[in-house]
Design goal:
It is built from 16 helices and 20 strands. The chain is an alpha/beta fold. The chain folds into three domains: 225 residues, Ribonuclease Inhibitor (Leucine-rich repeat, LRR (right-handed beta-alpha superhelix), Alpha-Beta Horseshoe); 129 residues, Phosphorylase Kinase, domain 1; 203 residues, Transferase(Phosphotransferase), domain 1 (Orthogonal Bundle), CATH 1.10.510. A hairpin with a 2-residue loop joins strand 14 and strand 15. The longest helix has 33 residues. Bound molecules: adenosine-5'-diphosphate, 2-acetamido-2-deoxy-beta-D-glucopyranose (NAG) (4 copies) and magnesium ion (MG).
């Protein structure tokens, strides 16, 4: 591996030569590649599949999920189903003029289906089912004259079915089931070929296809109007911002390319098809940094262990990367979070921030023990929490969490977060409070994890854009609009977390979506009917009405739409402490 550990101090000529290769590569990303980078910019979070898309490649043809025409190198297929993609679908997708196959089903896309899709005139299959698309079906889809498959089932689309879809003469599969569509199904063109299996589970569709007479007798549906224009306005604003961020990213990459030490450039070119191997990460000059003697091992020992890690040791993966179980010879176990780098080079900023995060110690926070800054990835070493995440405990395990445990977890999470907001200097906004970031120790005590990480990685991606990290469903309304995180946006997410713990349901559980709500909307609805206690998980044992009322009242305040109306985390902890009567066996809730 000696060749990979060369650095900038190599022969100057060779260095200049290589830099110019890097630069020509950067300039040469094909227009289709630029479109995909812009597509990625609106995605707030995923299972990490898009991390491997590298803007410095000449074309996107080797990127995950992408296929090109072998001759022209134009993108003909984009297939990213089941990757936990969260965010709106960029209207720039309409610029992929040779796209034939688009499969984004079973993700969490939201916002409208961009009418610009109607520009992909070679599209043969469009799979957008099982997302949260809302608004109307754009009539522009009727322009897709070679479309054979259209599946937009399982979204929250409303309005009626546009007449223009009748022009899709090649269409052999149509599914608009389980949406909120209503009105007459046009009995026109190709639409006469489909029967009720294509239309089941909508609010109120009528027509010959579903054997239901329409009252007004009209066979044609009026094309979409109204709310869609509002939505499109939002999209346009968004794409403006995206444009700025894309050019900023490209600019930043150019700079980075200049500074890049070419050893790692070579290494990356060769290692491109094997992003899985951790051994390659740490070969060639990786160094381990430990915080105040937290890791009583030599760098060599740790690197040896890192090299031995492989897929078998993966315990989870999230928006920012993959987590491995790292067991040392003395029996101590750690969690290693591996984040692929978007750019190369030393990152002083990153190291400084990590020093700060590593210095934060608290009973209800996950301890960051050290890190390894290699040329291809960032490896963070945390305490391993044997209880896994609260997300798993609530939604994936068969045994239910007892009421007392749930209270205790809420209390711990509140204290951890209050510590970040009020006792740290500088104060730390978490930005990504959600149940998978609340980890549990052996006694099911809560530990808040990943604090500060969202900010850290946003700054790595680009110093200009504010990318909304965190997960749809936990995000405060003002955060969704401005992308600006504050302590109060954390308080909102904490309120959602409390509701999730009380109800045992994820914030965007299908049962809420069916009713046209998310968890907060459902709570607010129940409150107007004075039935808020009904939100509680019926499987939960030991529910105490007094503490339930207090918790509901805290949650209601935390998810108020005005940030200034929400309590501080300090206040939340005070309220919680005043209502909880600790059992004799309990720990005393000490906040330091
Ligand atoms: N320190 C840790 N100890 C035990 N399990 C962990 C730890 N950190 C993360 N995990 C597991 O790995 C999963 C992925 O973590 P992460 O990459 O932070 O993504 P996310 O928080 O979005 O789920 C978590 O959901 C959790 O189950
Ligand atoms: C779609 O095509 C129309 C006309 O061909 C053009 O005006 C518009 O800019 C295109 N939109 C996109 C997103 O490519
Ligand atoms: C696409 O469809 C819209 C509405 O259905 C129509 O106004 C427009 O002219 C069409 N564009 C093209 C390029 O065919
Ligand atoms: C509906 O059409 C499909 C083919 O598109 C066919 O397989 C199915 O049997 C039809 N169902 C009914 C109830 O007619
Ligand atoms: C459409 O999707 C629904 C729900 O996923 C399914 O039940 C139905 O069979 C599908 N219809 C067709 C024609 O594929
Ligand atoms: Mg996490």
């Amino acid at each position: 591996m000696g060749i990979f550990s060369m650095n900038c101090r190599g022969p100057l000529l060779l260095y200049i030569l290589l830099v110019s290769i890097v630069m020509s590569n950067t300039r040469a990303l094909s227009p289709d590649g630029e479109v995909l980078i812009s597509f990625r910019t609106t995605i707030l979070s995923s299972d990490g599949v898009l991390l491997q898309w590298r803007p410095e490649d000449p074309d996107p043809c080797a990127w995950k999920g992408v296929k090109c025409d072998p001759k022209t190198k134009r993108v003909i297929s984009l297939s990213l189903p089941y990757h936990k993609l969260i965010g709106p679908l960029s209207p720039d997708i309409g610029k992929l003029e040779h796209l034939q196959f688009l499969a984004l089903h079973n993700n969490n896309f939201y916002g409208t289906i961009p009418p610009e899709l109607g520009n992909c005139s070679e599209l043969r299959a469009l799979h957008l089912q099982a997302n949260y698309f809302s608004g109307f079906i754009p009539s522009e889809l009727g322009n897709l004259s070679v479309l054979e498959t259209l599946d937009i089932s399982g979204n929250t689309l409303s309005g009626s079915i546009p007449l223009s879809l009748g022009k899709l003469y090649k269409l052999s599969t149509l599914n608009v089931s389980t949406n909120f569509l209503h009105g007459p199904i046009p009995y026109d063109g190709v639409l006469v070929n489909f029967n009720e299996t294509s239309f089941v589970g909508n609010s109120d569709l009528c027509g010959k296809q579903v054997n239901k007479r329409c009252n007004d007798g009209g066979g044609s549906a009026s094309d979409s109007q109204g709310p869609i224009s509002e939505n499109q306005g939002g999209n346009k604003k968004n794409s403006g911002r995206l444009l700025i961020s894309t050019s900023a990213t490209v600019g930043a990459l150019l700079l980075v390319a200049l500074m890049c030490f070419w050893g790692c450039f070579l290494y990356k070119k060769l290692g491109k098809n094997d992003v899985k191997s951790l051994a390659m990460d740490v070969s060639g000059g990786a160094s381990i940094v430990m915080f105040h003697g937290d890791l009583p091992y030599s760098s060599k020992d740790i690197i040896k262990k890192l090299e031995a890690l492989n897929e078998e040791h993966i315990i989870g993966s999230g928006g920012f990367g993959t987590v491995y179980r790292l067991a040392m010879d003395d029996g101590c176990v750690f969690a290693l979070k591996r984040i692929l780098k978007m750019n190369d080079g030393f990152d002083r900023f990153f190291e400084r921030e990590l020093e700060i995060l590593g210095s934060i110690k608290h009973r209800y926070l996950v301890n960051l023990r050290g890190y390894c800054n290699s040329s291809t990835s960032k490896l963070l070493i945390y305490d391993f929490l044997p209880g896994g995440s609260l997300d798993e405990a609530l939604h994936e395990r068969s045994e239910q969490l007892h009421w007392d445990k749930r209270l205790n977890i809420i209390m711990g999470a509140a204290k951890g977060l209050a510590y970040l907001h009020h006792d740290c200097s500088p104060r730390i906004v978490h930005r990504d409070i959600k149940s998978s970031n609340i980890l549990l120790d052996g006694n099911l005590e809560a530990r808040v994890s990943d604090f500060g990480l969202a900010k850290l990685l946003e700054d790595e991606k680009s110093h200009i854009t504010t990318i909304v990290a965190g997960t749809f469903g936990y995000l405060a309304p003002e955060y969704m609009q401005s992308g600006r995180a504050t302590e109060k946006t954390d308080v909102y997410s904490f309120g959602v977390l409390v509701l999730e713990i009380l109800s045992g349901k994820r914030p965007t559980d299908a049962s809420f979506i069916e009713k046209g709500f998310n968890i907060v909307g459902w709570l607010n609805y129940l409150v107007t009917e004075n039935r808020q206690r009904e939100i509680v998980d019926p499987h939960c044992e030991g529910v105490q009405p007094e503490s339930l009322d207090a918790l509901l009242s805290v949650a209601i305040q935390c998810v108020l739409s005005g940030p200034e109306d929400r309590p501080t985390m300090h206040r939340v902890v005070q309220i919680l402490e005043s209502v909880m009567t600790p059992c004799p066996s309990d720990f005393s809730y000490d906040s330091s």
